[in-house]
Amino acid sequence: MGGWSSKELETRASPETSVLGTASETASETASLGTTIHLESTNLHKKTNAFAHRTSNYISEELIVRRGEPFSMDLTFNRPPQSSDNLKITISSASINIELPVTIPNPSNAVPWSASSTLKVNTLTVTINSPLNAVIGCYTMALSFSNGRSTSSASLGKLYMLFNPWAKGDAVYMENEAEKKEYVLNETGIIFFGSASTIRTRPWDFAQFQEKILDITLKILDHSTEHRRDAKKDMKLRNDPSYVGRMLSGMINSQDDNGVLEGNWSSDYSGGVRPTKWNGSKDILTQWADNGSVRYGQCWVFAGVLCTVLRCLGIPARVVTNYSSAHDTDENLVIDRYFDEDGVESDETSDSIWNFHVWVEACFARFDIGPPYDGWQVLDATPQEPSEGLYRLGPCSVNAIKEGDVDLPYDAPFVYAEMNADVIDWVLSSDGTKKKIKSNTRTVGKFTSTKAINSDERVDITNNYKYAEGTSKERESFKKAQSKLSGSGLRRGTIPFAASSTEAAPTLNFSGNFTSSSDIEIGQDVTFSLNLKNTSTNEMSLQVNLTASAIVYTNATVSDLLTNAQSVKLGPNEETSIPYNVPYAEYGNVITPDKMIKAVSMCEDEKGRKLLVETVILLKDPTIMMKILDQAHLNKPLSVEIAFTNPTAEEVHNCVLIVEGSGLVKDKIIIEEPLLSKNQRSVSKVDIVPYQPGKRCLFVDFSCDSVSDVKGSLTIDVAPN
Question: Whole-model pTM?
Answer without folding.
Answer: 0.92
